[in-house]
Design goal:
binds nicotinamide-adenine-dinucleotide; binds magnesium ion; Rossmann fold; Rna Polymerase Sigma Factor, Chain: A; alpha/beta; 2 domains; 6-stranded parallel beta sheet
Length: about 375
């Protein structure tokens, strides 16, 4: 049995906290050897008490990225969990791959921005990219042992977020407090807003496209408000495999760490008799344009997904600061995308350029 020596980038966040819980639950399989935080030094020191041998690093201020890279490439680690919100984990992730570390990726933004570069680098260096996002972890489990050409489509489940039943006209008045109240998951602020606009599911469509090498037309979304079925794979013979568990990110984190093994834990099992119902419905594409914007970005490819992602990050910040309305998030993203001339097959420099251009353009539109 292999014990994983894991560095957690973003150890104080929602995913980081769950990952520390997994490490306490299966200490014979997971050892935390490094942890970073961005602003909350006290929280990092507190986390460090539980894992006194772990190296600690703060990523804010001068040289922050260098400290993340140093942690991500440290000799004592064999896996790096990227649990940083947004795209700040991209360079550390690439550095970890070059240093031969396996990646566990929660930060979907880096795969949306530079999925092709990350997956190509991982192949070249012979390292694994293990998905932590619950949907992708589910698809990863369903795909095991199956050839890509046997897949008809991957079907991402979406909770629908807090505004699932809101009439479209009410969305204009939605507040950050209302948008942050996720019905089934307790997560960081940015992903909670993304879940309300459905940009989270849009980003996840592009994330799936790169993780599993399936083109956008084979990536589908279905609303499943109970968040028990974490996603599904439909094969060419019409059979569908699904992965289910209670709603707890410790499940996908543990599987990323123990893969390809399964080990017992103290997580709550599913009680089927207590589940009242599992329901499915089509997403409201017209009322939540994020899904179609993301599909378009994924189909065009090149720098367009990075532009969508960057504009969304800026617009989410503006919404949380009450500088724009809820619908202004997708309106801003759409306007920024419409004025971008996508670069095909971009290198990292072109991706970073597009990212910063989109951030500026979005900030301009919102000011
Ligand atoms: P969070 O806001 O709770 O935590 C973010 C972590 O990143 C913190 O440790 C923070 O210190 C660090 N951080 C923030 N900005 C940083 C920066 N600029 N540079 C370096 N570090 C920085 O976020 P979260 O909910 O844990 O989400 C983390 C990532 O995981 C996101 O990409 C999110 O989409 C993804 N994800 C989260 C969940 C979930 O349940 N929370 C589920 C699936 C995927
Ligand atoms: Mg998810």
């Amino acid at each position: 049995m292999r014990k994983r020596r894991v560095v957690i980038l973003g150890a104080t966040g929602s995913i980081g906290t769950s990952a520390r819980k997994v490490a306490r639950d299966i200490p014979e399989r997971m050892e935390i050897v490094g942890m970073s935080a961005h602003s909350n030094e006290a929280a990092l020191r507190e986390a460090g008490k539980e894992f006194p041998d772990a190296k600690l690093a703060m990523s804010s201020g001068d040289g922050g990225e260098e400290r993340l890279i140093e942690l991500a490439t440290m000799p004592g680690a064999d896996m790096v969990l990227i649990a940083i919100v947004g795209t700040a984990g991209l360079r550390p992730a690439l550095a970890a791959i070059e240093a031969g570390k396996d990646l566990a990726v929660a930060s979907k933004e880096i795969l949306v921005m530079a999925g092709e570069a990350v997956m190509t680098a991982a192949r070249e260096h012979g390292v694994q990219v293990l998905p932590v996002d619950s949907e992708h972890n589910a698809i990863f489990q369903c795909l095991e042992g199956h050839a890509s050409e046997h897949v008809r489509r991957v079907i991402l489940t979406a909770s629908g977020g807090p505004f699932l039943r809101w009439p479209a006209v009410s969305l204009a008045g939605a507040t950050p407090e209302q948008a942050l109240k996720h019905p089934t998951w307790d997560m960081g602020r940015k992903i909670s807003i993304d879940s309300a606009t459905l940009f989270n599911k849009g980003l996840e469509m592009i994330e799936a496209r790169w993780l599993f090498d399936v083109e956008m037309p084979r990536v589908d979304v279905i609303v499943h408000p109970q968040s028990i079925v974490h996603s599904m794979v439909e094969f060419i013979d019409g059979s569908v495999l699904a992965q289910l568990s209670t709603t707890d990110m410790c499940f996908p984190i543990q599987y990323a760490v123990t893969w390809p093994d399964r080990v017992p834990n103290t997580l709550p099992p599913l009680d089927f008799a207590a589940l009242a119902q599992l329901t499915f419905e089509a997403p409201r594409r017209a009322d939540f344009p994020a899904l179609d914007l993301a599909r378009h970005a994924g189909e065009i490819g090149g720098t367009l997904p990075a532009v969508l992602n960057a504009a969304n990050e800026i617009a989410v910040d503006a919404f949380l600061d009450r500088r724009c309305s809820f619908p202004a998030i997708w309106q801003t993203v759409e306007r920024v995308m419409n004025t971008h001339a996508p670069v095909a097959a971009p290198d990292l420099a072109a991706i970073l350029d597009a990212d910063s251009w989109a951030r500026h353009r979005a900030a301009e539109l919102l000011s």
